[in-house]
From TrEMBL:
This is Ubiquitin-conjugating enzyme E2 T. The keyword ATP-binding applies. Pfam families: UQ_con. One of its GO terms (molecular function) is ATP binding. It comes from Fundulus heteroclitus. Residues 1-136 form the UBC core domain. PROSITE patterns: UBC_2.
Amino acid sequence: LVCVVKLTRFNPSASSKRSTEIVGGAQTPYEGGIFSLEVKIPERYPFEPPNIRFLTPIYHPNIDNSGRICHDALKLPPKGAWRPSLNISTVLTSIQLLMAEPNPDDPLMADISSEFKYNRHVFTEKAKKWTQEHAVQKNKGVVEDDKENATDQKESSRKRDALCSLREAEQSVKRPCV
């Protein structure tokens, strides 16, 4: 499993919100999707868990239509498993594992949980369809933008290398022999 974390600009005094992205795991219905999540850091973090929700719609028994996630690592004991020793990266990885292995016995979406338990093929097809509609389309735009940016970055890199070489040559001429 690969957990890609991309944080937006963050000013601790202005806001406790961050955004991140998780890549859908290989050989899951979410494969190929990039899922955006909102991460809210409470004032008492790490003594309280972060509040994390999906911004990208996802078809999953433990994630509701508002993006809220039913996961022990996001709840305080005694009902939850949050500990101050956990960090956001660990929690995101556990959310990605939850995506790959739903917990139908503790659902937020009872109908999806029932489908997962008793009609896995239908669940898988719907989850793949939602991933294609909501998470992969965004990915295609990012890939196209990255191709254009890669060309720009290569050109910038060539210019930077040429400028550095020129500066090094100038400095070697100016250095006195010792």
